[in-house]
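Hi U.,

Before I forget, here's the chain from the pilot set. I'm dumping it here mostly so it's searchable later in email.
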Amino acid sequence: MKILEELLAKVWFERIAFMGLVIVFIYSGIDKLLHFDQAIAEFSSLNMEPAWLLVLLTIGVQLGGSALLFFRRYTVLGALMLAVFTAMATLIAHRFWEAPANNYVPELNAFLEHLGLIGAFVLVAHLSAVRSSRNNVSAS
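Structure:
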């Protein structure tokens, strides 16, 4: 058990875990940058206006929050940015309660998976805040 705890405590292990959490946001942010007009059309189709501004904000949150987590800078902020973004996107895109019967289960599953991701980001924020407060106490 000690060996496993030592492995899990390594900084590189944390970075791999963070990459797993943020990879979808990095992909999505880059995809929106490369296909900006399509992203604007998608947001407009959801009546999200001004679409161009919301797309830019989305790219900023997706790539910025991911970078903050991965490079361990303002980790709490990055995790909370991605948690709030995921909550908003989930409520907009996976409204299982409005889905037709043949799409109810897939939308419910996507909604629940996103809740798990939100929980992971909140947990990262919590653990980072605890780590930071412990470091501040020991430095005093």
